[in-house]
């Protein structure tokens, strides 16, 4: 694995490009909007058949993992994202034993699931072996040893093929995949056909959670389409959102189940706190019952845009989406 000098990346700009002095990791969200991190050093890189990863040391957010030119997570606030993805379903389910992660290369999603004393096994299927090796070696602040937990079964394989071929049943399933970029490894895992196959792997009373794209009104196309798609598969779905400082925008998630007693509208702050106190080995940094239940109270523009959308993602009509728009 070679270290690269920052000018080799087209998403790192020099001060002479009109920015303050130094190197800057720049993401363009719209033709008139960008977010820039002061990049102090490129620590490690990995180019694979599926994606390009870089680990940067930044001025404000510590280490930042960049995949295909998009901020994936930062050392400073990755817990905001990973606790938001994992904890609503983890704490809502009364007795989760088995969990499945689609993607999740950093190991932090597994870390949060394995924080529950009652979890007996976690399967994590990520297509990119080199990214998994990269994470194990260089993202210790993210995985905190989760890759060495005997309850974790790590599979370097296509998550889609795993879902199609396994006979396993899971209490919790998490989709922690990258954006459905055209030509990328993940766009086929956002379709109604795939979600129907995935649902067959849920045990009775199981919950599926997916990261579901930006919550900024400037880039709010993907989330309503995922809502419409999952509404065709599950009886109860709930959108929720968390502001991620390193993303410079809110990020959305979807919680899905067929169990009436576990529907999003039935989640209670006190019950979630009780579950956390009884089952979690380590106290949470970002989430508690009030944080979780409050995250499901959506701004009006979310609700209006979701209601107005008619998009459904299918194999015949996939949706391609990227937050970074050069």
Structure, described:
The protein has 326 residues and is of the alpha/beta class. It folds into 2 domains: 69 residues, Spermidine synthase, tetramerisation domain (Spermidine Synthase, Chain: A, domain 2, Roll); 231 residues, Rossmann fold (3-Layer(aba) Sandwich). A 7-stranded mixed β-sheet has the order 9-8-7-10-11-13-12, with helices on both faces. A 6-stranded antiparallel β-sheet has the order 1-2-3-4-5-6. Strand 12 and strand 13 form a beta hairpin. Helix 1 runs parallel beside helix 2, helix 7 packs across helix 10 and helix 8 crosses helix 9. It is globular, with a radius of gyration of 19 Å.
Q: Give the CATH superfamily of the largest domain.
A: Vaccinia Virus protein VP39
Please tally the β strands and state the result. Answer: 13
Secondary structure category? alpha/beta
Q: What is the CATH architecture term of the largest domain?
A: 3-Layer(aba) Sandwich
Uncertain stretches: 1-7
**Terminal CA distance:** 27 Å
Helices and strands, in order, run as EEEEEEHEHEHHEHEHEHEEHHH
| Rg, Å, rounded | 19 Å
Query: What is the overall shape?
Result: globular
Estimate what percentage of residues fall within beta strands: 25-35%
CATH class placement of the largest domain: Alpha Beta
Number of helices, counting only DSSP H or I runs of 4 residues or more: 10
Number of domains: 2
CATH topology of the largest domain: Rossmann fold
Q: Mind describing the biggest β-sheet? A: 7 strands, mixed
Helix content percent band: 25-40%
